[in-house]
Design brief:
Number of strands: 4
Number of domains: 1
Strand content: 5-15%
Structural class: alpha/beta
Order of helices and strands: HEHEHEHHHE
Oligomer: single chain
Strand order of the largest sheet: 3-2-1-4
Distance between the termini: 15 Å
Largest sheet: 4 strands, parallel
Shape: globular
Radius of gyration: 16 Å
Length: about 160
């Protein structure tokens, strides 16, 4: 099955309302029925090298989030992202806008220093520890996955999971 087929299958054909961005930014609520995805491309640098306007995710990643939203309409689907939005969220590619048009999709900017406050890792020097690793981005992602489940519970999925049923 090709990515194009999956994108057409999961992205709804309805037009995207100009007000679709309202209420999208929300932190997950502990104990809530939800699915969480983490985008960690910029966990160490804070910005992307490829200057994509809007939210910097790939079509495949958007398809993963959309598939979770489509197949789990009673769950909130959160995308926690680390890359800064270039320009406005409304400047994002069409496939990102389509993903964000699902009523149960929410996004939350993950700022490491704020994210670890009030957790067992609050006194741990996250940046120093992961930067000293040979596989720093991978280890940073592993720590953030653990911390996300500790903070919010729910279901975590990698950004390359596509849910069909």
């Amino acid at each position: 099955m090709t990515l194009l087929f999956l994108a057409k299958f999961y992205f709804r054909e309805e037009s995207i309302n100009a007000n679709f961005l309202h209420g999208l930014e929300a932190e997950p609520v502990p104990g809530e029925k939800h699915i969480i995805f983490l985008e960690t491309l910029c966990v160490l640098s804070g910005s992307v090298t490829d200057e994509q306007s809007g939210l910097a995710i790939t079509q495949r990643q958007a398809c993963a989030v959309a598939s979770a939203a489509n197949t789990n309409p009673d769950s909130k689907v959160y995308l926690l992202y680390t890359c800064s939005i270039i320009g406005k969220l409304g400047d994002s590619p069409e496939y990102v806008k389509e993903m964000l048009s699902y009523p149960n999709v929410r996004i939350w900017k993950l700022v490491i220093s704020d994210y670890i406050k009030g957790t067992p890792l609050e006194t741990w020097d996250f940046m120093a520890k992961v930067r000293s690793s040979k596989w720093s981005v991978t280890h940073a992602s592993d720590v953030l996955r653990f911390l996300t489940l500790w903070k919010y519970g729910g279901t975590y999925l990698d950004m390359d999971f596509v849910i069909r049923k």
